[in-house]
Design goal:
The complex is a heterodimer of chains A (336) and B (330).
Chain A: E1 6-21, E2 27-43, E3 47-51, H1 58-65, E4 73-78, E5 81-82, H2 88-96, E6 98-101, H3 115-128, H4 136-149, H5 166-178, E7 184-188, H6 196-213, E8 216-221, H7 224-230, E9 233-238, E10 241-247, H8 248-253, H9 258-266, H10 272-277, E11 318-319, E12 325-326
Parallel strand pairs in A: 3-8, 3-9, 6-7, 7-8
Antiparallel strand pairs in A: 1-2, 1-4, 4-5, 9-10, 10-12, 11-12
Helix pairs in contact in A: 3-4, 3-5, 4-5, 5-6
Chain B: E1 5-18, E2 21-34, E3 38-42, H1 49-56, E4 65-74, E5 77-78, H2 84-90, E6 95-98, H3 102-105, H4 112-124, H5 128-141, H6 147-150, H7 160-172, E7 178-182, H8 190-207, E8 210-215, H9 218-224, E9 227-232, E10 235-241, H10 242-247, H11 252-259, H12 300-304, E11 310-311, E12 317-318, H13 324-329
Parallel strand pairs in B: 3-8, 3-9, 6-7, 7-8
Antiparallel strand pairs in B: 1-2, 1-4, 4-5, 9-10, 10-12, 11-12
Classes of the chains: A alpha/beta (336), B alpha/beta (330).
Chain lengths: 336, 330
């Protein structure tokens, strides 16, 4: 990926949410370490898949990148500009290049706005703030163009979200994200709420736009098969940490981290013959609560291959060759 | 072969009357369940998977729902002819059920012990002490550590996967003949899903319980089931054994569905196959094949009448006009 320009760079990102107690006097009694020190890069026209189980900090990461949460520490560099320390005006401009698509197409569209107004809203907002110079007529044209592009008839402009099916709503969500011609789209589980036959439509749509507009995606999903299909590179998260990251094909062929192995083996494959022959690595126990500071490997409690040394230090995310990075003592010795 | 059949659903039709018209949620569904078998019912949202199984237990809220016809023979009797009390014996007793969201199907105000003991006392006619022992035994069986202590916990003290284990323990506590699992793992993570599916598989084998597995996930079906029913818009469009369905799907919908799932074991494709169009609106559906607007092989005939179920080789059945000629030629 060296040949591609790096658009987004995240360094040592941490997001700790305080846990408060007390009725009148609120005091902090601890922190939920939703994201606990991660780093990644996203190149131009590239798709980085972020995969992991619920509560591992995928969505928080996306929200930190968009500065919807102010990260506790760390930096988010968009084309060299650190968003964490940017002024409001600079941040607004930066957000033009960075739009989001959300999981639930029912909750993420305002039920009182028409489809046309929903798609036009980003344009309106940036026009009002004086960042974007666009006439009302142009906005209407743009909205119609976007609707046709995502496969909706422009005559649906005056319809309300409840008149659309789930798949069509997600198309509206995609059109809204594209309205400002962004460079990056943060897609937070964009297909998880959709049926299989609709899911493939939306995935194809996103892939088409990427090719056409050279978009970069930070694509979050818990479905490994979906992630593999759409991503160039994949980062596997667990408990607020990136456990392994590499090229998508390499990761699936040659998973190094025991967590990645278990995750891949747990995915059911729609073929009875393969299913019968497969050996599952079944992890015991649940994901531990992220409210404690860890000095051991984050995966220690559930790891089937744990060693003594894993209890004593946190392994670093270290390159073991060809851009394949893994945070596990089975493959290197460096600690954090 | 016929003897083993413990549940026979015949031409079941469940309609909902709404302001916009009649929703034919289940429209002429027939299937059989044999002893110890795992039957998968697969389909997308709104295809009638859940409603058909709620109808089996006569649990459709009426109004607006109404069972318009058909029979469900369980234990030699039609479920729809039973009194409310006889039904209560079946629900939770002879037929256990687990739902998708374990948090909403457990009462958050009651301890697990209270909820489990109530069920066991009601169906097994044993003392409370014995019921409690049975509850602990069941919790141990589903792999809840320190079951003796945890039986007195409240549902919120368990994690999602653990809660689903509690649900399974509860559903199996009265030795049901049938376990209906309605999307039991859809709310869970993959690693937890693998645990729960293995648990259901192990227990059903051990206890000889037949399982009806309702899911939208073809991968879950492939790994768990003996036979599969594919549903679309309230109708079963294809039936067959697990291997048959996946190796050689006959109905264009099944074929499309299997092709449109991205797969880990296959090399990456440039473009995913996708079934174009939207799922059908089931309100006031005309007499036609509901899949024809999205079907690659749609013919004129498909627009005017619904194809009857055609028996093919083996145990297969498919409802599609493409296969009609073959049988009439015989």
């Amino acid at each position: 990926m060296e040949n591609k320009n790096t658009l987004l760079e995240v360094k040592d990102l941490k997001m700790h949410f305080p846990i408060e107690e007390g009725v009148i006097i609120r005091r902090k009694v601890g922190y939920i370490r939703a994201v606990d020190g991660i780093e990644f890069e996203l190149g131009e026209g590239e798709t980085l898949g972020l995969v992991g189980e619920s509560g591992c900090g995928k969505s928080t990461t996306a929200r930190c990148v968009a500065q919807l949460h102010k990260p506790t520490t760390g930096s988010v560099l968009l084309e060299g500009q650190n968003l964490c320390t940017s002024s409001k005006v600079d941040l607004l401009k930066a957000r033009m290049d960075m739009q989001m698509v959300f999981q639930d197409p029912y909750a993420s569209l305002n039920p009182r706005m028409t489809a046309g107004n929903i798609i036009a809203e980003p344009l309106q907002i940036f026009k009002q703030r004086g960042v974007l110079n666009i006439g009302s007529k142009e906005i209407v044209e743009k909205v119609e163009m976007l609707m046709e592009k995502v496969g909706l008839s422009r005559f649906f402009r005056n319809r309300y979200p409840h008149e659309f099916s789930g798949g069509q709503r997600q198309r509206i969500g995609v059109a809204r994200a594209l309205a400002l011609d962004p460079k990056i789209i943060l897609a937070d589980e964009p297909v998880s709420a959709l049926d299989v036959s609709i899911q493939s439509q939306i995935l194809n749509l996103l892939a088409d736009f990427q090719r056409e507009m050279n978009l970069s995606y930070l694509f979050i999903a818990h479905d490994l098969a979906v992630i593999q299909h759409i991503s160039d590179r994949i980062a596997v998260m667990y408990l607020g940490k990136i456990m392994e990251t590499s090229d998508s094909e390499e990761l699936y062929k040659n998973p190094l981290h025991p967590y990645t192995e278990a995750l891949l083996s747990a995915v059911p494959i729609p073929d009875p013959e393969i299913e019968r022959a497969r050996k599952r690595i079944i992890l015991t126990g649940d994901v531990p609560s992220p409210d404690t500071e860890r000095h051991s490997c984050y995966f220690y409690d559930r790891c089937p291959k744990k060693m003594d040394k894993c209890a004593e230090a946190v392994p670093r995310l270290e390159d073991v060759g060809g851009g394949h990075k893994v945070a596990c003592f089975l493959h290197h010795d460096s600690t954090e | 072969m016929k003897k083993d059949i413990i549940l026979k659903v015949d031409n079941l039709r469940t309609y909902f009357n709404t302001d916009d018209g009649v929703v034919k949620a289940v429209d002429g569904v027939s299937f059989e369940l044999r002893k110890g078998e795992t039957l998968g019912i697969v389909g997308e949202s709104g295809s009638g998977k859940s409603v058909s199984n709620l109808s089996v237990m006569n649990l459709i809220p009426s109004p607006p729902g109404k069972i318009m016809g058909g029979t469900v023979i369980f234990d030699g009797r039609n479920v729809f002819d039973l009194t409310e009390e006889e039904l209560r014996n079946i629900r939770g007793g002879k037929i256990g059920m687990i739902f998708q969201d374990p948090m909403t199907s457990l009462n958050p105000f009651l301890k697990i012990s209270t909820q489990m003991v109530e069920t066991i006392v009601l169906h097994k006619k044993v003392s409370k002490e014995d019921a409690r022992k049975r509850a602990i035994e069941m919790l141990e069986m589903v792999g809840i550590p320190k079951a003796e202590k945890r039986v007195d916990d409240y549902p919120h003290q368990f994690s999602g996967g653990m809660r689903q284990r509690v649900m399974i323990a509860m559903a199996l506590s009265c030795d049901p003949e049938i376990l209906i699992a309605d999307e039991p793992t859809s709310a869970l993570d993959v690693t937890i899903q693998a645990q729960i599916l293995e648990l259901i598989q192990d227990l059903s084998k051990k206890l000889g319980t037949a399982v009806i597995m309702i899911t939208h996930d073809l991968g879950v079906v492939a790994g768990m089931c003996d036979n599969v029913n594919v549903m679309y818009a309230g109708k079963v469009v294809e039936k067959g054994t697990n291997d048959e369905i996946f190796a050689d799907p006959k109905h264009p919908y099944t074929r499309g569905l299997i092709k449109s799932v991205p797969r880990l074991d296959k090399p990456k494709q440039k473009k995913l196959y996708s079934i174009e169009g939207q799922p059908p609106n089931v309100i006031d559906l005309p007499e036609c094949c509901p899949f024809f607007p999205r079907c690659e092989h749609a013919m004129d005939k498909c627009k005017t009448s619904y194809p009857p179920a055609v028996k093919l080789e083996g145990s297969r059945e498919v409802s599609c006009w493409l296969y009609e000629e073959k049988t009439s030629g015989k």
